[in-house]
Amino acid sequence: MPEEQAFSVLVKIMFDYGLRDLFKQNFEDLHCKFFQLERLMQEYIPDLYNHFLNVGLEAHMYASQWFLTLFTAKFPLYMVFHIIDLLLCEGISVIFNVALALLKTSKDDLIQTDFEGALKFFRVPVPKRYRSEENAKKLMELACSMKISQKKLKKFEKEYHTIREQQEQQEAPIERYERENRRLQEANMRLEQENDDLAHELVSSKIALRKDLDNAEEKADALNKELLLTKQKLVDSEDEKRRLEEESAQLKEMCRRELDKSESEIKKNGSIIGEYKQICSQLSERLEKQQTANRGELEKIRSKVEGCEKCSSLFNKEGRVRAVTTAPAGGTEETDEEKEDLKNQLREMELELAQTKLQLVEAECKIQDLEHHLGLALNEVQAAKKTWFNRTLSSIKTVTGTQGKETT
Questions:
Q1: Which of 125, 284, 296, 298 has its CA 20 to 30 A from that of 265?
Q2: CB 66 within 8 A of CB 98
Q3: Which residues pair with 315 in a beta bridge?
Q4: Is the Cβ–Cβ distance between 87 and 95 less than 8 Å?
Q5: Cβ count within 10 A of residue 122
Q6: Per-residue exposure over 162-183, b if at least 16 CB sit within 10 Å of its own CB, e if not
Q7: pLDDT per residue over 76-119, tens digit each?
Q8: In this structure, how many other beta carbons lie within 10 angstroms of the beta carbon of residue 185?
Q9: What is the DSSP letter of 321?
């Protein structure tokens, strides 16, 4: 059982079941319970009651722990648990049932003892006997079987108070007043002690409350300062956010302009590349046409040379000039002139072919330069895009991180 529930049960037993009254007013209510127990013994166990009268054994000598501790001082716990269960169900009158059951089961042994033997028997053999669960169970069955009416207990209580009044009336007034005075003095001392305790507790509570109040005020001041700092940080973060948004807008505009410029340059370079490609294709077509025309002229010249007896003897099948050993004297000049013409034509054709190749190489170089410039422009555009995107992401992360810290 938790401590809170156990304490609640204790408070319930002490106040609602009347156990606290046994300790008040010089145990007056406890002596009343002793009187009721003796009257019940006189009714239910008369021979044991008479034996106790003969030896001078009174109820307060052996039964005080039964009422004040609910049998927890000497008896085993499993028996005490049953007694407390019955107490919670039936009330404090259950103690009389258990006490009568104990006396009734031990009657034969108690009758044979004297005053000291009876007290010793109550201290040792009685609790030892009920360490056995079987004996404890029989005792509880006997206690439950005994019927003690509340009317009878009320009747015995009235008899006790009547006897007490008679004793007080028989006493001398001075003794009675002195006893009453002593009781009132004790009550007054107890109340003064309680008053001192309450005053000390009040002062301690006031000091503790003052300390708590000071601590609360210090915490409030610290929280106010922290709140002001947080507000200032919030204002600064909002300004920073606004500035970052402006920078982001400027970056977006700059990147847009760069992108437009890059796109225009790409379009311009594309148009230039297209023109160069067109020029190169035209040059290649012109070169091919010239090569075909040159081949045709070469074929015509070769056919003419082969048709001429004099010229065929000067060239081989591959079109190269043969080494001439002997030649007619009259045809030497004509042959030299024809050779010179053919050589001039070949030089012109080779020169034109070289120029055409040079133009083609220059066109290819320009195309490579344009492709290189295009690649650089594309890289710059991608770098501009990445830079803008990274700056935007970093600014967004910075703003969100600052806001997250402020909210925490």
A1: 284
A2: yes
A3: 321
A4: yes
A5: 22
A6: eeeeeeeeeeeeeeeeeeeeee
A7: 888 999 998 888 888 888 999 999 999 999 999 999 999 999 98
A8: 10
A9: B
